[in-house]
Write a structure and sequence with these properties.
This protein is mainly beta and 526 residues long. The chain has helices at 16-19, 121-130, 140-143, 324-330, 374-377, 415-435; strands at residues 23-26, 32-36, 43-44, 49-50, 52-53, 61-73, 79-83, 95-96, 117-120, 185-192, 208-216, 227-235, 241-252, 260-265, 270-275, 295-300, 305-311, 385-390, 393-395, 400-410, 457-459, 466-481, 486-489, 493-500, 506-514, 517-525. The chain has six helices and 26 strands.
């Protein structure tokens, strides 16, 4: 088990309000996941204990810490970095709450929307049916949902997604409106990289606001052992970043921390950790997984995994990153000393010299095939720290990008059988994700910016999903969810048009495009 050195002294002008944090848990299926707004997830910052328990109530844990790395280069080639490894004021680059949306990306004097908002589908359904009852009290997650920012502080008017049932643009839970969540149980939090110094990476801030939604389903088999994560990154700065990379870091400990191996599979965009020997011993009072320990992995669901890497629990050139350039190197398949990741052996000193972005990418453990794995390389077991990095994309000033992940667990037999099974399981979880109706990603439209008007009618409104558009001349129609996701696109229309959809209940924006001009109106689907 790792220990955080709380005696480290540092001087920084950090507001006490930003330095405070909250801890909650998401336990809607077979997983109990500790969620904090410290920037490190699946970890209890007060006890420095692991916080990803599987199975729930077993006292065994799979992950000690999970965090996100956000790296970018601006048009001048200047490196920006927001990255954290472990909890603790001396380690953090990321802070709670929203920041200004005026291009300055400054943090307001007081934290706004800095809590953890936990909501379940069951609570939402009960709220929708009982909000008008005289003795009904909405749960905190619904009543305090951070749907709107304080525009007087320079924050964005709209923050967290909600069901705008009456179409007036305001979140009104006392009228039956409710948060829009994914899954059956969700935890939502808003963070930024501007409210304090970057003590973890030492890098310059990007000026980003990140909305995290962790969510779980009451599902069968593999889905019951999965936690999904949506990270919605908003560039609140005035800088364009032609190179933007997101890393997902996992310090997984399969029970006992010191006997693990790492692997990855680029075809299924997964990194994973499995027990390196047949028996997982107990640690820290936990009983251990014994003879059939599970494997745990992180799957990138909507971006290509460009790097799947690991490093040692050490301070050397193949160990923990400690500077912005260290993180950027890892996110680009390069060791801290500037040498590329290598195929074979341990990926560095015993490698083949052939560059490789994917560490231990062999996927067969049981049939004797000599694939490149830690097992076949004869590496000593140890405390593995794994990470993935997305392909390089751009994010302009004011733009939004979304990154979706699944934390999956495999326990089907021996340590090698579980490692083997986690690869096809990643594909199955990805297929489940693709089948969900609300797994939107990159935002293609900023609805408040559409201010032009045109005389046209959309009726009936509210609608069951079938409605008419009446307008002069030729046009096309696009339907977007209230958060900007395109959910319907017509061909060329004219005059009165019959629109048939199977949209879920909620508020949508119908946008007519006539000669390149865009004209919006809202419609409610019931």
């Amino acid at each position: 088990m790792k220990k955080i050195n709380l005696a480290v002294l540092f001087t920084a002008c950090v507001s006490m309000s930003y330095g405070q944090y909250s801890t909650d848990s998401l336990e809607g299926n077979n997983i109990r996941a500790t969620i904090t707004n410290y920037g490190t997830f699946f970890n209890d910052p007060e006890s420095s204990h692991a916080g990803y328990e599987f199975p729930k109530d077993s006292e065994n844990h799979l992950i000690y810490a999970n965090s996100f790395w956000f790296g970018a280069k601006d048009s001048g080639g200047n490196l920006k970095m927001c990255a954290t490894l472990f909890s603790g004021e001396e380690n953090r680059d990321i802070y709670r709450g929203a920041i200004k949306a005026d291009g300055t990306a400054e943090a307001p004097d007081e934290v706004f929307a800095g809590d953890i908002y936990v909501v379940s589908k069951e609570e939402i359904l009960f709220h929708a049916a009982n909000y008008a009852a005289w003795d009904y009290v909405a749960p905190d997650g619904i009543a305090d949902w951070p749907a709107h920012g304080n525009v007087d502080l320079g924050l964005a008017a709209n923050l967290a997604p909600f069901a705008d049932l009456n179409g007036n643009g305001s979140y009104e839970p006392d009228l039956g409106e409710y948060p829009e969540i994914r899954g059956d149980h969700a935890a939502y939090l808003i963070m930024n990289d501007m409210a304090g110094p970057h003590l973890g990476s030492g890098g310059d801030p990007l000026g980003i606001e990140i909305h995290f939604m962790f969510y779980q389903y009451d599902g069968d088999a593999d889905i019951n052992n999965t936690t999904f994560v949506n990270a919605r990154v908003i560039n609140r700065s005035s800088n364009d970043y032609p190179e933007f990379v997101v890393g997902n870091y996992m310090d997984a400990d399969i029970g006992y921390a010191g006997d693990d191996y790492m692997g990855c599979d680029s075809a299924n965009n997964i990194i994973y950790i499995y027990n390196g020997d047949v028996l997982d011993e107990g640690t820290g009072g936990a009983p251990g997984y014994g003879e059939n320990p599970p494997a745990v992995g992180i799957v990138s669901l909507n971006h290509v995994m460009n790097v799947g890497g690991y490093y040692d629990n050490s301070a050397g050139p193949y160990g923990d990153p400690s500077s912005a350039s260290d993180y950027w190197n890892y996110m680009n398949a390069t060791w801290k000393n500037g040498l590329p990741f290598q195929y074979g052996g341990n990926g560095h000193t015993t490698g083949s010299g052939i560059p490789s972005n994917y560490m231990f990418g062999g996927t067969t453990y049981l049939d004797g095939e000599e694939v490149w794995s830690e097992l076949n390389a004869g590496n000593p077991v140890g405390d593995r720290r794994a990470f993935m990095a997305s392909e390089i994309i751009s994010i302009g000033a004011g733009e939004v990008r979304c990154f979706d992940y699944a934390v999956i667990t495999s326990q089907v037999g021996s340590h090698l059988e579980s490692a083997e099974a986690i690869i096809p399981q990643a594909a199955e979880v990805k297929a489940f994700y693709d089948d969900q109706p609300n797994t939107y990603c990159d935002f293609t439209l900023s609805v408040p910016e559409l201010t032009k008007t045109l005389e046209f009618d959309v009726y009936p409104n509210p609608s069951t999903g079938a409605f008419f558009i009446q307008a002069e001349g030729e046009y096309t129609a696009t339907i977007c969810s209230i958060d900007g996701r395109v959910v319907y696109q017509s061909g060329l229309l004219s005059g009165k048009s019959n629109i048939q959809t199977d949209l879920a209940h909620g508020t949508y924006v119908v946008i007519l495009n006539q000669n390149g001009e865009l004209y919006p109106t809202k419609i409610i689907i019931r």
